[in-house]
Design brief:
Layout: H1 13-21, H2 27-32, H3 35-42, H4 46-60, H5 68-73, E1 83-85, H6 90-95, E2 100-102, E3 104-110, H7 116-126, E4 139-144, H8 151-164, E5 176-180, H9 184-201, E6 204-210, H10 212-219, H11 225-246, E7 249-254, E8 256-258, E9 268-270, E10 273-277, H12 280-284, E11 289-293, E12 301-303, H13 307-310, E13 317-319
Parallel strand pairs: 3-7, 3-11, 4-5, 4-6, 6-7
Antiparallel strand pairs: 1-2, 8-10, 9-10, 12-13
Helix pairs in contact: 3-4, 7-8, 9-11
């Protein structure tokens, strides 16, 4: 709850004086008391109690409430409207009906080497593109919690994208911010303090955390599941607030865990193993969109060099 004093309320000062005489000095104290008890302690009328509660609502939530019909018509609060961020791959975009959801928390999970970070890096580039190309015309913040940031790979992707979209002449690397969070406390500091400051002073439209599981799996033991669940719930709530307030896309890379119980709901089969995204139900409840990527035995052949244009039967093929 916001730190609001009763003196900050836009209400008759006589009511404020009555509250003080009744030793009711805080907003939480007012909210927990029933109307009759509040009126008796402060010696005010039922009408004054109603005015008091309305003043508190206006102070704590200055936005006007809207009905479900207003939301359905998409005419009341733009914060309820969702847009899509292209993944930079037509196949992925078609699967997601246009791309990743904005605002909201998009989770990408999978085994090591399945391409999770590759997708995240590509999103850091596509978010900078014009809306006609599936972007959001903004920068990206990449928070690394495991390995060093793959700068070389990002340079390769940026170079390829600039060649493909000749109309985009700006340097795509200039609008990507990089942070490192080695533990839960560092990640909390970023989310609670530094990220809001960055969003207020820049045009960042995408936040990537790679990976969300790394810090939570290391710091909490098996006997600390309750503390971990609480921390995950608080982090998820804070990320949702940031995503909706600043209209940014949030992508969290997650690891996977083997399913050893008989209950296999929500799991996927990878090479004969039943796996499920890590961090359990506490984190699953915070996620808006959950995606899982996996390696397959299939490869895609790409033409390389002059052989691509010569039509020679002895074409130089490289497997990607």
């Amino acid at each position: 709850m916001q730190m609001v004093s009763i003196t900050d309320l836009d209400i008759d000062q006589k009511i404020i004086s009555c509250l003080r005489k009744g030793r009711i000095t805080t907003i939480p104290h007012i909210l927990v008391l029933p109307n009759e008890e509040l009126a008796a302690k402060a010696h005010i009328t039922a009408e004054d109690v109603s005015k008091l509660r309305e003043a508190i609502c206006r102070k704590l939530n200055p936005q006007q409430p809207c009905s479900l019909l207003d939301i359905w018509k998409q005419t009341c609060h733009p914060s309820f409207l969702h847009t899509k961020l292209s993944a930079g791959c037509q196949i992925i975009d078609d699967t997601l009906k246009g791309g990743l959801l904005v605002p909201g928390i998009n989770e990408i999970s999978g085994e090591s080497g399945s391409g999770k970070t590759q997708i995240a890096l590509q999103l850091c580039l596509t978010v900078q593109l014009d809306v006609q190309y599936g972007g959001l015309q903004g920068g990206a913040l990449f928070i690394s919690t495991e390995d060093a940031f793959p700068t070389k790979r990002l340079h390769q992707l940026a170079h390829h994208m600039q060649k493909r979209l000749k109309s985009q002449n700006e340097n795509l690397m200039d609008s990507i911010y990089i942070e490192h969070a080695a533990d839960v406390e560092s990640l909390k500091t970023l989310v609670n303090q530094r990220i809001p400051t960055l969003l207020m002073n820049s045009n960042v439209r995408l936040i990537v955390i790679d990976s969300i599981a790394a810090v939570f799996r290391v710091e909490y033991t098996v006997n600390e599941n309750l503390e971990r669940s609480k921390a995950l719930a608080e982090l998820g709530q804070r990320l949702h607030i940031i995503s909706h307030k600043y209209r940014v896309a949030i992508v969290c890379i997650n690891q996977i865990s083997d399913v050893v119980s008989a209950d296999k709901v929500g799991s996927e089969d990878i090479g004969g193993r039943r796996v499920i995204p890590a961090l359990g139900l506490s984190w699953a409840n915070a996620v808006t969109v959950r995606l899982m990527v996996m390696r397959t035995p299939y490869t895609v052949s790409q033409l390389r060099g002059a052989a691509a244009n010569s039509g020679n039967a002895q074409q130089d093929l490289t497997k990607v």
